[in-house]
Amino acid sequence: MSRIGVFVCHCGENISATVDVAKVAEEASKLPGVVHSVDYKYMCSDPGQTLVKEAIKEHNLTGVVVAACSPRMHEPTFRKACAQAGLNPYLSEMANVREHCSWVHEKSEQTTQKAFDVVRTMVSKASNNAALEPIKVPVTKRALVVGGGVAGIQAALDIANTGHKVILVERSPSIGGHMAQLSETFPTLDCSQCILTPRMVEVAQHPNITLYTHSEVESVDGFIGNFHVKIRKKARSLDEDLCTGCGLCTTKCPQKKIPSEFEQLLGTRPAIYTPFPQAVPNKPVIDRDNCTFYKTGKCKICEIVCPTKAIRFDQEDTILEVEIGAIVLATGFDVKHSDFFPEYGKGKYKDVIDGLQFERLASASGPTQGMIRRPSDGQIPKKIVFIACAGSRDPAKGIEYCSKICCMYTAKHAMLYKHKVHDGEAHVFYMDIRAGGKMYEEFVRRAIVEDHVNYTRGRVSTIYELDGKLIVKGADTLLGAQSVEIEADMVVLATAGVASEGSEDLAQKMHVSYDQHKFFAEAHPKLKPVETNTGGIFLAGACQTTRDIPDSVAMASGAAVKVAALFSSDLLTREPIVARVNRIPGPSHSTCVGCFLCQPVCPYQAIEREDIKDRAGNIIKSLARINEGLCQGCGTCVALCRSKSIDLLGYTDNQMHGEVLSVLEEAFV
Amino acid sequence: MKLGIYPGCSLTGSARDYNESVFAIAKACDIQLEQVPDWNCCGATAAHNMNKELSLSLPARILAQAEKAGLTDIVIPCAACYSRLMVTQHELNNDPVLKNRISEIIEMDFKGTTNILNVVQMIDLYVSPVLKEKIVKNFSHKVACYYGCLMVRPYKVLQYDQHEDPQGMDNVIRLLGGTAIDWGYKVECCGAGLTMSKTEIVGMLSGKIVKDAARRGAQAIVVACPMCHSNLDMRRPAINEYIGEKMDIPVIYITQAIGLALGIDEKTLGLQRHFVPVKMAEYIPPVPESKKQKAKEPTNTI
Question: Which one of A140, A153, A459, B237 has the fewest CB atoms closer than 10 angstroms to its CB?
Answer without folding.
Answer: B237
